[in-house]
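queue> holo job accepted (adenosine-5'-triphosphate)
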Amino acid sequence: MTAIETSGLTKTYGDLVAVDDLNLSVEKGEVFGFLGPNGAGKSTTINMLLDLTRPSAGSATVLGYDAQTEADAISPRVGVLPEGFDIYPRLSGRRHVEFAIETKDADNDPDAIIERVGLSADDADRPAGDYSKGMCQRLATGMALVGDPDLLIMDEPSSGLDPHGIREMQDLVRAEAERGTTVFFSSHILQHVEAVCDRVGVLNDGELVAVDTIEGLREDIGGGATMELTLVEAAAGLRETAASIAGITDVVASDHALECTVTDPAAKADLVIALDDAGATIEDVRIDDVSLETLFTALTNGDESEAATETETASATASESGVAR
Ligand SMILES: Nc1ncnc2c1ncn2[C@@H]1O[C@H](COP(=O)(O)OP(=O)(O)OP(=O)(O)O)[C@@H](O)[C@H]1O
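queue> job finished
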């Protein structure tokens, strides 16, 4: 069963097409990254899945239910980490979690949830109005986990988190996926998505421009990787050996270094084996994949320098459709 399925899902605001004919399929148990630059239409899509915004055209199912006509059947089974979570400043963190438990008629232990999202028992007793941004994000994550949802929808989950918090968030997403939860994870930060997602969909100007694994996207944009090998021997004598391997292109030999462009990931091991068979002694190997900034830029026609100035970066994955050109 698919956890999320959209068919021609479209949202317009006047002349602006925020989401344009979106056909997306997310499998049950998958961690799916939904990527795109600011204004791409990610939140609008999520809002339509949650029936917070009505589509202008098309339809969506969530956990097998129609997102608009059967929203009541969906909400108890979905945990949502919204973008810009509003707290009740005077209520403690624990009370927020208790409130979520009561609302969902769930039987979770609030303290276990609080511990799971990395808030201390003391913090849980403080008014949430005194929380830092990252603490608010942890609290919101805890509230999303209430009821052990089948689908976790997270809009920019790393927002406000420090590097330690980001790692904890990634561990939590993986643990949820192992439990069988489908995670739909929106972000414009490629690195975070790459760390946890099975596949990614990339949205640009409301259109889905790619669905694949990040590795698949790298291959599709033809970027390949660069592999640099340092040899004991002079590299020139081994250039032909390297160039003869399928999936290796553009071999440059200088002194004791061979620099090769790798278009097929399997060629990396083939290259090492072939050089070894040819009697070469490899001292060091360095592999540079296509940077995530380059990937994101290629997919969204963005400005690479702009992408690189993001504190972190974005990424994308997905299935059979690959990169749409
Ligand atoms: N209520 C609204 N009225 C008019 N335009 C809207 C409304 N909501 C969203 N939009 C527009 O729809 C487009 C998509 O916005 P959306 O918030 O979905 O993008 P996003 O990908 O989530 O961006 P971000 O990464 O910045 O959160 C934007 O151009 C936005 O200005």
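queue> The chain has two domains: 2-218, 224-288.
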